[in-house]
Amino acid sequence: MDTWLVIGLGNPGPGYAGNRHNVGAMALEELAGRAVGGRAVLKPHKARARVAETRLEVGGPKVVLATPSSYMNESGGAVAGLMKYYDVPVERVVVIHDELDIDAGLVRLKQGGGEGGHNGLRSVTKSLGSKEYLRVRLGIGRPPGRQDPADFVLKDFSKAERTELLPFLLDEGADAVEALIEVGLLDAQQRFHAPR
């Protein structure tokens, strides 16, 4: 069975752990907790990432879960290195990331397209030489008032968001990755893009 590579984007270190920009890495940890046989533990890999090889369902394909150990704007090197190491084609690379242009709490899926000013995606696209990887886009909404989007994404989720929005968003994000792998992009889009 073909291997999948699932990347959760974020910045390394405890100072960034609760940031909106790290919601992709948080969703990857949610996925790791669902691994067959118990929580998959991410361990350092020579491709400058933390990696776990697992399966998300019994009898399912091998899934490599990873978070780059570099900063967001340098994520692409780790993704390209892991793609080569595990011999995964670009159409089975899934990148989970925060998305300002989607309402907070919504999850959207797509393949290819632009980066929308997201430095992590820009780095991945440049390093892979392709935009055709899959994206699981976790909506964090636009900043309030005139707050700079760059400042907004580097702020922690509020206490209310951490109790009401975040658990749901991470659960939905993990569900979306599982659906992508299990039923493919179009069926997963129909499931997650439908009004709820």
Automatic annotation (TrEMBL):
| Cross-referenced SUPFAM superfamilies | Peptidyl-tRNA hydrolase-like (SSF53178)
List the active site: 21
Subcellular location(s) per record = Cytoplasm
Question: Which keywords has UniProt assigned to this entry?
Answer: Cytoplasm, Hydrolase, RNA-binding, tRNA-binding
Highest taxon listed in the record's lineage: Bacteria
- Which residues carry the site feature described as Discriminates between blocked and unblocked aminoacyl-tRNA? 11
Relate the assembly described in the record: Monomer.
Q: Which is an annotated GO molecular function term of this record? A: peptidyl-tRNA hydrolase activity
Q: What does this protein do?
A: Hydrolyzes ribosome-free peptidyl-tRNAs (with 1 or more amino acids incorporated), which drop off the ribosome during protein synthesis, or as a result of ribosome stalling.
Which parts of the sequence bind tRNA? 16, 71, 73, 119
- The enzyme's E.C. designation: 3.1.1.29
Give the family from UniProt: Belongs to the PTH family.
Q: What reaction is this protein's catalytic activity? A: an N-acyl-L-alpha-aminoacyl-tRNA + H2O = an N-acyl-L-amino acid + a tRNA + H(+)
Q: What is this protein called?
A: Peptidyl-tRNA hydrolase
Report the InterPro entries cross-referenced here.
Answer: Pept_tRNA_hydro, Pept_tRNA_hydro_CS, Pept_tRNA_hydro_sf
Site features described as Stabilizes the basic form of H active site to accept a proton, chain residue numbers: 98
Q: Report the enzyme's class at the first EC level.
A: hydrolase
Query: Do you know which NCBIfam families this protein is assigned to?
Result: pth
Q: Which gene encodes it?
A: pth
